[in-house]
């Protein structure tokens, strides 16, 4: 593999596309290019020795196919379903795209539930249910305040629970658990059949524009040797390292941008007796001050044919921007132009800082108490704490507030369309096909009309490019 990699890296050709990063984002875009332009030369560079070893690894994320039903953070106002409806629309595109892959082993039907405790949250969930079920996309959602019904939907929630506290739940039977690692590998295998080159253990360390072509300096992480490759279009799907690479490329669109790392841990059990009694993903409300992606959830997972339960996330902090990154990572993204932006965002999010500190000092016993709020009779001996992936949340300039911490996924494209990159985290993986269709329209406006019929063949509900959503 290494010898073959050297040979093609030394080739003088100009690639049509260079993909940086071997996660779900590069794999999705590469798979689209392979279908739309099988004659293009495409090369993917991944710094680690395996594909999908960062956020896209199934144990580094929660594997929820985000479709808007159970993620309460997409709908803090129970009367405003716009964001949840948009996620549902994008997830429908994902399912359509994934259906074209044949093998569906990476996606497991898993009902999506919400459970809330206390009168105020019960009122919220009831109002949310009413608003959502008025929309066709969510009409399959069910609602109950009956403890017996909740016990049928998710028995562990009611095991050993003291009666009396108001509770409510919603359920969507058509939810999914997704192994984004297996999906990444499936997509990349498909790309290889049309000639895409995949180079593992190769880190892109520099990007420079020369006339109309990007020059990439690539370092072999084993031999430390450097090579240069040239490409007409570059996609930076480097997860937590995307901002750093876009900054190095001198893209004006990320001027003033910064990132703030959030790590996560989950409690995991493989005890077959416990695992067999929970067949859902159950989400709830985030704790006061917690970032939106920290909503607690108890998830059924299926990874490599083995069932487990996962509970979390618990926030962790590190200055690494990837799980397999370096402690200096965060500092390499700090520029004169983003210091004020970062400080302003920090000052506006003091409750988040307090939440983070409280999570960092939380003992295992306190963490376990959070699980027992969901599953009162959980036994500590069944559960192990595992380190999940590292998120790099985007902090960006804001006209009124100087800086703003954001929690979504952001596609950045250069004005000339020759380079694009993906920043942020959830609902990223679940909505990758919609994001990549958007990228194709923004970076290849002249070719897009030609590609559109084939894209619509892959995703029949893709809106026409002249329709504003
Ligand atoms: C704790 C947690 C829970 C999550 N839960 C969910 C969920 O339930 N559902 C959901 O849809 N999403 C979830 N997400 C988000 C989801 O995991 C991400 O949106 C998605 O995996 C991002 O994919 P990516 O390809 O952009 O990045 P990654 O999977 O991180 O891949 C980036 C790759 O680029 C490589 N790389 C970096 N720099 C270079 C370089 N210079 N040269 C070459 N290679 C490089 C890295 O090694 C890595 O393999 C979660 C994320 C986390 C952290």
Give a short synopsis of this structure.
The chain has 15 helices and 19 strands. The longest helix has 18 residues, at 82-99.
Description:
The protein is an alpha+beta fold and about 475 residues long. It has helices spanning about 1-10, 25-35, 80-100, 120-135, 145-155, 155-160, 180-190, 240-250, 270-275, 330, 335-350, 350-360, 365-375, 430-445, 450-460; strands spanning about 15-20, 40-45, 105-110, 110-115, 140-145, 165-170, 175-180, 195-200, 200-210, 215-220, 225-235, 260-270, 280-285, 295-305, 305-315, 385-400, 400-405, 410-415, 420-425. It is globular. Bound molecules: flavin-adenine dinucleotide. Flavin-adenine dinucleotide binds near residues 47, 64, 237 and 422. The site of flavin-adenine dinucleotide has 42 residues, from helix 2, strand 2, strand 9 and strand 16.
Low-confidence stretches: 1-10
Structural shape: globular
Strand order of the largest sheet: 5-6-4-13-14-15-12-16-17
| Gap from first CA to last CA | 45 Å
Distinct small-molecule ligands in the complex: flavin-adenine dinucleotide
Oligomer: single chain
Please count the beta strands (DSSP E, at least 2 residues each).
19
Structural class, by secondary structure, is alpha+beta
Mean pLDDT: 93
Features:
15 helices; binds flavin-adenine dinucleotide; 8-stranded mixed beta sheet; 469 residues; disordered N terminus; alpha+beta
């Amino acid at each position: 593999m290494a010898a073959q990699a050297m040979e093609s890296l030394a080739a003088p050709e100009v690639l049509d596309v260079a993909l940086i990063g071997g996660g779900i984002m590069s794999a999705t875009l590469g798979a689209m290019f392979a279908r739309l332009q099988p004659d293009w030369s495409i090369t993917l560079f991944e710094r680690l020795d395996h594909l999908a070893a960062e956020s896209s690894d199934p144990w580094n994320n929660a594997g929820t196919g985000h479709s808007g039903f159970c993620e309460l953070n997409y709908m803090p106002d129970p009367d405003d379903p716009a964001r949840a409806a948009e996620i549902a629309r994008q997830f429908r595109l994902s399912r359509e795209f994934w259906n074209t892959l044949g093998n569906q082993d990476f996606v497991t039907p898993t009902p999506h539930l919400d459970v809330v405790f206390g009168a105020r949250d019960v009122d919220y969930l009831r109002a949310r249910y009413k608003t959502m079920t008025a929309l066709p996309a969510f009409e399959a959602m069910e609602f109950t305040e009956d403890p017996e019904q909740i016990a049928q939907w998710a028995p562990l929630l009611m095991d050993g629970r003291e009666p009396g506290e108001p509770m409510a739940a919603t359920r969507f039977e058509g939810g999914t658990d997704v192994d984004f690692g297996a999906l990444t590998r499936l997509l990349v295998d498909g790309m290889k059949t049309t000639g895409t080159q995949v180079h593992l253990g190769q880190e892109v360390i520099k990007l420079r524009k020369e006339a109309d072509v990007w020059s990439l300096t690539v370092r072999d992480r084993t031999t430390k040797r450097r090579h240069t490759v040239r490409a007409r279009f570059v996609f930076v799907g480097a997860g937590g390292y995307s901002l750093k690479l876009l900054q190095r490329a001198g893209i004006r669109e990320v001027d003033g941008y910064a990132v703030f790392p959030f790590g996560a841990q989950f409690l995991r059990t493989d005890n077959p007796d416990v695992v067999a009694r929970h067949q859902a993903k159950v989400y709830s409300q985030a704790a006061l001050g917690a970032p939106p992606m920290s909503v607690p959830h108890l998830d059924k997972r299926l990874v490599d044919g083995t069932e487990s339960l996962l509970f979390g996330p618990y926030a962790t902090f590190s200055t690494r921007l990837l799980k397999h990154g370096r402690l200096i990572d965060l500092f390499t993204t700090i520029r004169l132009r983003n210091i004020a932006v970062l400080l302003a965002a920090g000052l506006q999010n003091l409750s988040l800082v307090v939440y983070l500190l409280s999570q960092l000092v939380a003992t295992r016993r306190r963490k376990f108490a959070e699980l027992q709020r969901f599953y009162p009779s959980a036994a500590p001996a069944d559960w192990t704490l595992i380190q999940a992936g590292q998120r790099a949340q985007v902090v960006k300039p804001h006209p009124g507030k100087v800086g703003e911490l954001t929690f979504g996924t952001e596609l950045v494209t250069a004005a000339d369309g020759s380079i694009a990159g993906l920043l942020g985290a959830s609902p990223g993986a679940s909505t990758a096909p919609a994001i990549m269709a958007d990228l194709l329209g923004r970076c290849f406006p002249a070719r897009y009309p030609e590609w559109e019929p084939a894209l619509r063949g892959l995703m029949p509900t893709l809106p026409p490019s002249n329709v504003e959503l």
